[in-house]
Amino acid sequence: MHGPAVVTWLLAVLATASGVYCLTRLRGVAAACTSSGPGTGRWPARESDAAEALMGLGMAGMVLRPGILWGWPYGLLAAALLVAAARPAATGLRAHRLHHAIGALAMTYMALAMASAPAHAHHGAPAGLPLLTGVLLLYFGTYALWAGSRLLSTPAGPVRVAGAEVSRACRLAMGIGMFAMLLTM
């Protein structure tokens, strides 16, 4: 990333925390699946937590050590998610898979754009294609606003920290992180 060091480290910590939280949720969902038996319909939750854990930890790695190497696994993840989204499924699951596919494609794009940018171009021309970067900024900015509004629209009453709210906060954090990474390209 081409930004202040403190922003880079804060973004890495935020992405790591989100990724680790999703890994712990994945472990909890896996335990619930094995205890309740096969065919319980918990696969979508496992898929979502796995994709979010990969995205969070990958964002942290890409922030700290940008390079073309990050593009390959996220390109494959994007292809798998696009194929999965093309299969007949519930509308919400399809939209979630498409969101993760867009995130994985954005990670691939950033890895390739940052690798092709000259090392001395910190304040020169932007890395990547400005139109594509702008479209991705618009998408993730809108997603962050939408996710934030969903997080704020919890019922009135005592503040409680439940799993659903923490998951929404992690998704919001990753959306903001993706926006910040694109903004600094």
Automatic annotation (TrEMBL):
Record InterPro entries: DUF5134
Entry-linked Pfam families: DUF5134
Keyword Transmembrane helix: yes
Keywords: Membrane, Transmembrane, Transmembrane helix
Transmembrane segments: 67-86, 98-121, 127-146
Protein name in UniProt: Uncharacterized protein DUF5134
Source organism: Kitasatospora atroaurantiaca
